[in-house]
Specification:
The protein is of the alpha+beta class and 229 residues long. Helices cover 17% and strands 37% of the residues.
């Protein structure tokens, strides 16, 4: 059960802040955050099975992330991670890109796509353009208010008072790494015998730079600072 919280133009200091957990089977082959060989301006992790990504950002400020929809399955459907890959390697604006997605080809998903300081969209059962504020999604229906989402939104709201972008990123990483319940709809961090939180990511954008911190559990922490174009 993944978790993504986005502060979109919710702060004068930080036009974009993202805190996200990727939950996946431990056995699924993955490469941690890196600059992509086939798209050198893109930073993010990679699914080594199908080449997609759960969250990625470009030097120019294009960002996308995806989660699955709980209980949704579609045999032989393409990987939902290619939706992230295709957005960050395209030039389409977020609305145009989202409208081009053939939702019926995929198992259920939540796709978040946008540009720092610009338009952000959420594509699930329908296409929604996000207003300025703090938004959260997990793996339930688009309007589901799971406790983990509410907890993460509240933490993000409080954390935006931290002035230093790297300190803010590390605060969010620390929050994402704590289990808050034994119930999957309630806990921020997931740990089961074969499935759980594989990585936590925090992205903090100022007008001058983007701080990207990824904690890959069992592997290490990766920190990148990107000068904004």
């Amino acid at each position: 059960m993944c978790l993504i919280v986005v502060a979109h133009r919710a702060s004068d200091r930080f036009p974009l802040v993202i805190a996200a957990n990727r939950d996946e089977e431990y056995a699924r082959p993955t490469r941690a955050a890196h600059w992509w060989d086939d798209a050198p301006d893109v930073l993010g992790g990679r699914d080594l099975r199908h080449g997609g990504s759960w969250l990625a950002i470009t030097r120019g400020g294009r960002v996308a992330a995806v989660t699955n929809l709980r209980g949704a399955s579609k045999p032989d459907a393409p990987s939902r991670g290619i939706l992230v890959r295709d957005f960050v390697t395209s030039n389409d604006d977020p609305i145009t890109y989202a409208r081009s997605v053939r939702k019926e080809d995929f198992a259920g998903f939540h796709l978040i796509a946008g540009e720092i300081g610009g338009t952000f969209v959420h594509l699930a059962d329908e296409l929604r353009e996000w207003t300025a504020g703090i938004h959260g999604v997990s793996n339930g229906p688009a309007d589901a208010r799971w406790e983990k989402i509410d907890r993460a939104v509240d933490h993000m709201r409080d954390a935006l008072h931290i002035d230093d972008p790297l300190a803010l990123a590390h605060d969010l990483i620390a929050f994402l790494g704590v289990a808050t319940s034994n119930e999957i709809e309630r806990t921020v961090f997931v740990a089961t015998p074969h499935y759980g939180t594989r990585s936590s990511t925090a992205i903090v954008a100022t007008n001058e730079e983007v701080v990207f911190v990824e904690q890959s559990y069992g592997v290490g922490t990766y920190t990148f600072r990107i000068r904004r174009l």
